[in-house]
Every structure is written in structure tokens, then in C-alpha cells.
Write a structure and sequence with these properties.
InterPro entries: LysR-type_TF_proteobact-type, LysR_HTH_N, LysR_subst-bd, WH-like_DNA-bd_sf, WH_DNA-bd_sf. It contains ten helices and 14 strands. It is an alpha/beta fold.
């Protein structure tokens, strides 16, 4: 092999391997699919192996490609760590920062915070991906995943960003029609609007109250993985919903939603999850500290000012 692979080609290859698509990779990078195909072809020629099996719909990584993928990730991580080490010595965050989070949190809050972060650190490049699933930080190449709810990954490092809780609420019209539940067990007799967040079990509400934990299996005719949709259905009187207080605070204040069982909440703190390799990263550290400040005190802070009882820990 006379020519060594270029770092950019390794990066393109890893993106294709993650997405299983030349077109999706091209769209993310702002290049043509032909360019992506050309770089993969050059890499295959240099390495002397077929990295992907092509079909009309997708590309599938080969056995040789799997081995190259693992090695390429290590090379790219080492280069990134070297860049970070130099930047950290200058205390100057730089390079590409890849962040994932949920749809509502990302669109309404995190996106604005990251805009301010990049203005503070102009040498940062930012990629924000909004997903309705839990990501694999290492395999998918993310630096930070912003999550709502208790951290459950022992191999990741959890950084608390903001304290919050999910609260029960419903429209006045629904409560006038169906009555106000008096205990958590009464929820089983009501129409409940199921919301599946990335960290929530679908249709199971774990409520902390003065008498401890209540796990309630709820049912209803409406459910979604998007909090905006669940909130709309709640406002239209279709049932009781359980959403983060910052997601419904304005409606609770103007009376379009009414809190139900106010002594019972579900813990929904906001966390930044990182890998151990990111502990010394200047860009990751700067992002987490800025996120803590802006999501609790900044212009796009989470609205948690309602008096909501904190779950016992």
C-alpha cells in the first residue's frame, strides 16, 4: 500500500458505516453522493478490501469493513484527543462538538444555548441531532447526550444540568367531565395520554409522593413520542398527561391546564451524559458548564419556577 488513507476519508467512511447510506452521509456533510462514493472507492483501493456491499436501497458494511471501522474510530478519536489536548493547553475550546438530545428539549432550549456557546467560542463547530431514542455515544460518535430522567448507564458519566420533575395535569374541560382523581390509583380509571420519552417506559408512570413510590400502569386512546402532540391533546380535553414542568408551566399559569395530584411527581432532572474519554476535553467541559448556566438562568432557561415538590432520593 503506497498511499496511506486520509483522515477525511476515514471520517466519511465511519459516517457511511453509521448511517448505512451514501446519500444520508452526503446530506449531512453538504457534499454530493458522488463525492462520498469516490472517497470510499479511493479508501477501498488503498486498503485493498471491499468495505461495503451495495444494494439499490442501502449499503451494508462488510466483515473487513467492520474491522476497518473499529480501527478508524480509534484513529479519529486519537486525533481528536490530540487536538483537544493542544486546545486545552491554550484553554480554548475548538473543533467539532456533536450533541444529541430529545426533540422538544433540543428545539426549544438546547439549540439556542448552543448558538450562544458557539458565539463565545468561535473555533467550535456544532452538530446537534434531535432523536426520539437513546443514542450510543461511542458507536455513534457523539460527545454529549442531553437526557431527561434518571441516568441509567453505569459506563457513562452523568453531569446534572438542571433539577426538574414531571407533573400531572389536564384541561378544565376534561376534569369537569371526568372528575379529579384523588389518589394515584384513581389514574387507572381515567384517560391518560401516554408519552414515550427516550428514558420513559411507555404507559408506566412512577410517581413519588408523601407516602412513597407509586407505579401506575395507565391506559388511554392517545399516545405519542412527541411531547408537543401530547400537550395539544391534553389542551383539547382528551385526558391526563404527565410532562416535565417546564413543558407545561405556561399553561398551568394561564389556567388552560390544571395540575392533578400536585403532591405526586416523577423525577425528570436534566443530565449531560459523556464518555470517560471526554473528561479532559475542553470543548465538552465548556459546553456542560455553559449548558448548566443557560438552562437554569439564561434567556432560554427551563421554566421550573412553579412550586413542585421534589421526589425523595
Amino acid at each position: 500500500m503506497h498511499n496511506k488513507p486520509e483522515l477525511n476519508d476515514l471520517s466519511v467512511f465511519c459516517e457511511v458505516a453509521r448511517r448505512g447510506s451514501f446519500i444520508a452521509t452526503a446530506n449531512e456533510r453538504g457534499v454530493s453522493p458522488a463525492y462520498v462514493s469516490k472517497r470510499i472507492h479511493i479508501l477501498e483501493t488503498q486498503l485493498g478490501v471491499r468495505l461495503f456491499h451495495r444494494t439499490t436501497r442501502r449499503v451494508h458494511i462488510s466483515n473487513e469493513g467492520e474491522r476497518v471501522y473499529r480501527a478508524a474510530l480509534k484513529v479519529l478519536e486519537d486525533v481528536d484527543a490530540m487536538t483537544e489536548a493542544v486546545a486545552s493547553a491554550r484553554n480554548e475550546p475548538s473543533g467539532l462538538l456533536r450533541i444529541s438530545t430529545s426533540l422538544r428539549l433540543g428545539r426549544s432550549h438546547v439549540s439556542y444555548v448552543l448558538s450562544g456557546l458557539q458565539q463565545r467560542y468561535p473555533k467550535l463547530d456544532v452538530w446537534l441531532e434531535l432523536v426520539d431514542r437513546r443514542v450510543n455515544l461511542i458507536e455513534e460518535g457523539f460527545d454529549i447526550d442531553i437526557r431527561v430522567g434518571e441516568p441509567v448507564n453505569p459506563h457513562l458519566i452523568a453531569h446534572r444540568i438542571a433539577d426538574s420533575s414531571r407533573v400531572l395535569c389536564a384541561s378544565p374541560a376534561y376534569l369537569a367531565r371526568c372528575g379529579m382523581p384523588a389518589t394515584p390509583d384513581d389514574l387507572t380509571q381515567h384517560e391518560c395520554l401516554a408519552f414515550r420519552d427516550r428514558e420513559q417506559a411507555f404507559g408506566v408512570w412512577r410517581l413519588q409522593g408523601p407516602d412513597g413510590l407509586h407505579t401506575v400502569k395507565v391506559t388511554g386512546r392517545f399516545g405519542s413520542n412527541h411531547s408537543d402532540i401530547v400537550r395539544i391533546w391534553g389542551l383539547q380535553g382528551h385526558g391526563i398527561l404527565l410532562l416535565s414542568v417546564w413543558d407545561v408551566a405556561a399553561h398551568l399559569r394561564d389556567g388552560s391546564l390544571v395540575q392533578v395530584l400536585p403532591d405526586y411527581v416523577e423525577c425528570a432532572d436534566v443530565w449531560a451524559m459523556t464518555c470517560s474519554r471526554s473528561t479532559t476535553s475542553a470543548k465538552v467541559g465548556a459546553c456542560i458548564e455553559y449548558m448548566k448556566q443557560e438552562l437554569t438562568q439564561g434567556a432560554y432557561a427551563l421554566d421550573t419556577a412553579l412550586h413542585v415538590p421534589r421526589p425523595r432520593r
